[in-house]
Write a structure and sequence with these properties.
The protein has 153 residues and is mainly alpha-helical. It has 5 helices and 2 strands; from the N terminus they run E-E-H-H-H-H-H. A two-stranded parallel ribbon has the order 1-2.
């Protein structure tokens, strides 16, 4: 199972690895420093995409992993294409309309009927809310970072 790095406001779920508010020891302090550095980079990049593409600001619960992957990859590619194109246009000639996107027809269907996919979704929701799994993943990350830091010395 994958995981997300998060700050203290999120619940202790398996897929959300929170920082340690008062780290004790060198291993945990290294983990906190590395996590905060990654979190700042991601927040900065995601903020740029949210400002440019409305679809990135929408709730993602109903999307499949594959759809989210393609949405994010598409937004990143489009962002890079826009940046590349803007290099050739003088600053005073750029307009806000160049940055607008149409999200009125996303091509998704909503169903209220119970089905196998929804049942699997609910099972996954229960699995990711495991506090024990959260602690195991965080401790594994701490050990991994400490091991890598020793290799770099």
């Amino acid at each position: 199972m994958g995981y997300y790095l998060a700050d203290g406001i999120y619940p202790r779920w398996a897929m959300i690895v929170k920082t340690i508010s008062q780290p004790q020891g060198a291993k945990r302090q290294l983990f906190v420093r590395m996590q905060e550095a990654c979190q700042k980079d991601v927040e900065r990049a995601f903020g740029v995409l949210q400002a440019r593409f409305n679809i990135v600001s929408m709730l993602a619960r109903g999307w499949s992993d594959e759809d989210l992957y393609y949405i994010m990859k598409t937004c990143i590619i489009l962002h890079n294409m826009i940046i590349e194109n803007e290099r050739d246009i003088p600053e005073n000639e750029r307009s806000a309309s160049q940055l607008e996107t149409d999200t009125s027809n996303l091509g998704c269907q909503v169903s209220r009927d119970p089905n196998a996919e929804y049942a699997q979704f609910m099972l996954n929701q229960q699995r990711i809310r495991s506090v024990e799994a959260h602690n195991v993943i965080r401790n594994d990350l701490i050990k991994h970072l400490w091991f890598r830091a020793g290799e770099l010395d």
